[in-house]
Hints:
Layout: H1 3-9, E1 20-22, E2 25-27, E3 34-39, E4 44-50, H2 54-73, H3 76-92, H4 94-105, H5 109-130, E5 137-139, E6 145-153, E7 156-160, H6 166-179, E8 183-187, H7 194-206, E9 213-215, H8 220-229, E10 235-239, H9 242-251, E11 258-262, E12 268-271, H10 277-289, E13 301-305, H11 309-322, H12 341-356, E14 360-363, E15 382-385, H13 392-395, E16 402-408, H14 411-418, E17 426-430, H15 434-443, E18 448-451, E19 470-471, H16 476-482, E20 484-492
Parallel strand pairs: 7-8, 7-10, 8-9, 10-11, 12-13, 12-17, 13-16, 15-16, 17-18
Antiparallel strand pairs: 1-2, 3-4, 5-6, 6-20, 11-19, 14-15
Helix pairs in contact: 3-5, 3-7, 4-5, 5-6, 8-9, 10-11
Residues 160-162, 164, 187, 189-190, 219-221, 224-225, 228, 239-241, 244, 247-248, 262-264, 296, 346, 397, 399 line the site of 7-thionicotinamide-adenine-dinucleotide phosphate.
Amino acid sequence: xxxxxxxxxxxxxxxxxxxxxxxxxxxxxxxxxxxxxxxxxxxxxxxxxxxxxxxxxxxxxxxxxxxxxxxxxxxxxxxxxxxxxxxxxxxxxxxxxxxxxxxxxxxxxxxxxxxxxxxxxxxxxxxxxxxxxxxxxxxxxxxxxxxxxxxxxxxxxxxxxxxxxxxxxxxxxxxxxxxxxxxxxxxxxxxxxxxxxxxxxxxxxxxxxxxxxxxxxxxxxxxxxxxxxxxxxxxxxxxxxxxxxxxxxxxxxxxxxxxxxxxxxxxxxxxxxxxxxxxxxxxxxxxxxxxxxxxxxxxxxxxxxxxxxxxxxxxxxxxxxxxxxxxxxxxxxxxxxxxxxxxxxxxxxxxxxxxxxxxxxxxxxxxxxxxxxxxxxxxxxxxxxxxxxxxxxxxxxxxxxxxxxxxxxxxxxxxxxxxxxxxxxxxxxxxxxxxxxxxxxxxxxxxxxxxxxxxxxxxxxxxxxxxxxxxxxxxxxxxxxxxxxxxxxxxxxxxxxxxxxxxx
Length: 504
Ligand code: TAP
């Protein structure tokens, strides 16, 4: 099928964008290189997407550098107005964006429609509103001096985004950076560039000046690495694996870029014996199976009090087995394919890892048998009981619909398990005991803790991790601060300073 036929088949009204977006225009890569982006439902080719090389990144950085003075000096409220308009346009094009996201990533349409698109609009709107709310400060210093602090944008920022929430992450990354007055060179993941390119189109429609936002799809090892190294880029913000995060830190050393990292996780989701069991069963299924488990904050370690473990697992396994797998573009589908074949294989390989260490597969552990899903990247909801919290499947990020079950005897053991990995991103706990809940939240090694819920996000609430999960925060005022630097200005109003060298 050609691109126009694919568009029509999935109900898209507007052209699928597949070129780089530099200085306000869609252009081919200088080298002419392209790479196919695939539909993970059946691995058919959706589009050949231009792949940026070094020259293209150089052009994007030059465009962003040229656009920076005017954008950063524009009245903050006017910058905000463009982001607010963008949020409106995202809502006006909601169905288009939802279908495109489902086609390229495998997110079920009900997720794209109800979560990805509204959250993207909400995040741009939040930062649009915040553009003129970030203020400087006045510091009470010595008599006779005025000392004020300016919060200034950094300049050109590089952003490297992964494939698990490509649409939503455009807003998490670009929203605060733009509101604060920076210009951007963003690389989407090579396997999921389409919704980001659509956002570029909507940005132009919203009135974004040329060069403020540049999108350079390309290989991580080429375009991504070059962005991290680039001397014209003041900061790099990255979401992805801890291994790549480390490479980015090394690559950024050349010009001592500011670095912000949102990396992997191994979320502990602890259910105590006094929890509301039904709420915990449902919340724990959402924690791991939403987005096929491809979330850094997924509740991938299900830590159960041994008194309720059997009853909980009965209900949890029944629920997991009832989840409807299918074509993401079917509105009744509850779980789609993983986003790539390579990643599906990586997730399934962990089933063997679990078995080798004595783990017991309680559900799933394989692709579905339905013939219409045979060519896709599907994995059944998988539940594995591990022997120890030290096992690999209890320590390493699997990043799929794969949950590792562990049990505990008392609060101390629950905490030991929760804090036993090098990661520290999101964690949750289910209990009716108020004191225990707050004590656990205080002592958990994590950037976010959910009590009697899991995986809540909001544009106002700081998002990020500790330890090997990275540093820096997205969302909220914290995110705006991450995209600014403070300048301290001293004014001698009427200070009486005795001369240091009185003879002069
Ligand atoms: P990564 O390699 O971390 O990919 C994430 C992004 O970084 C992609 O855009 C990638 O480009 C880019 N990238 C790769 N190498 C780079 C480099 N040297 N310099 C700059 N950018 C680079 O993740 P992956 O291989 O796709 O997935 C592997 C594992 O990472 C997953 O199984 C999961 O555990 C974890 N992961 C975590 C997250 C979150 S939200 N924390 C997201 C995705 C993956 P390409 O487009 O070429 O890949």
